[in-house]
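Title: Comparing notes on inverse folding

I've been comparing how different people in this forum approach sequence design from structure. To keep things fair, I'm posting one structure and asking everyone to reply with a full sequence. Here's the target:
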């Protein structure tokens, strides 16, 4: 999986500072920290799958690509804002947010559940970078996000195939699959994203999970179009072994889009 592209493939000479959106820049800074911190997830997944060397090899390659994403996003952020201290922000983030690296089993209750949760994460990241790509007018960021979005779709496939392999012996019920997926979606409001946003953008002030989380959510939520939401919901449904197409999926897609628009308006009013 590793080595499909590098920072040398990015058209840095096309960078246009006049087309940098401050809200997108703030979101990219936070995303750079989360992506660069991927080795903690590699360590955790190695603990969950200690007897599967092939999967560990795939996870190592996945972690390499995630770190590459973080470095590319950070390099763009420094182009856009030369005062951005990426290494200092990353150290601050790592000091404040830590995964359960001493875990020897999945926090999802099973390996199959772990793979569903990872699929949900990849749904979120692939949709995020697709939305960023389509929202920005800055050519270099568009090129970076296009590459990252492609990687994240491949990562989803890696974890989905891992889920099918694990579930062949575990056989999670539909309720168990949905519970894991919904639980992981709910975790997007936990400390990781809000703390990354704080560490990258507002470290001079005290960390406030709600305030900084809302600030990140507003800046990211505005980027999405209906197609991004619908595709992400279809991918989540597929990970739960539900039909990602058809009327039910369409209804859930419209419900998700309506919820996002409502949340964006609520967050905008609160920010004002």
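Reply #1:
Here's my take.
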């Amino acid at each position: 999986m590793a080595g499909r592209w590098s920072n040398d493939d990015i058209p840095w000479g096309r960078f246009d500072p006049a087309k940098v959106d401050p809200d997108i820049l703030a979101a990219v800074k936070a995303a750079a920290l989360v992506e660069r911190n991927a080795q903690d997830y590699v360590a955790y997944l190695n603990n969950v799958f200690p007897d599967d060397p092939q999967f560990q090899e795939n996870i190592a390659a996945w972690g390499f690509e995630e770190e590459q994403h973080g470095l590319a996003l950070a390099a763009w952020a420094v182009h856009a804002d030369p005062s951005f201290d990426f290494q200092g922000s990353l150290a601050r983030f790592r000091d404040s947010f830590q995964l359960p690296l001493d875990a020897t089993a999945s926090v999802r209750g099973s390996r199959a559940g772990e793979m569903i949760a990872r699929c949900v994460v990849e749904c979120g990241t692939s949709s995020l970078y697709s939305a960023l790509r389509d929202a920005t007018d800055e050519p270099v960021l568009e090129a970076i996000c296009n590459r990252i979005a492609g990687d994240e779709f491949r990562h989803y496939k890696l974890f989905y195939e891992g889920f099918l392999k694990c579930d062949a012996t575990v056989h999670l019920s539909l309720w168990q699959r949905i519970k894991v997926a919904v639980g992981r979606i709910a975790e997007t409001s936990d400390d990781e994203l809000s703390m990354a946003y704080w560490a990258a953008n507002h470290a001079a002030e005290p960390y406030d999970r709600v305030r900084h989380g809302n600030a990140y959510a507003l800046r990211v939520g505005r980027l999405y179009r209906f197609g991004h939401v619908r595709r992400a919901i279809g991918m989540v449904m597929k990970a739960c072994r539900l039909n990602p197409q058809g009327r039910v999926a369409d209804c859930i897609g419209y419900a998700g889009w309506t919820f996002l628009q409502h949340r964006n308006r609520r967050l905008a009013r609160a920010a004002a």
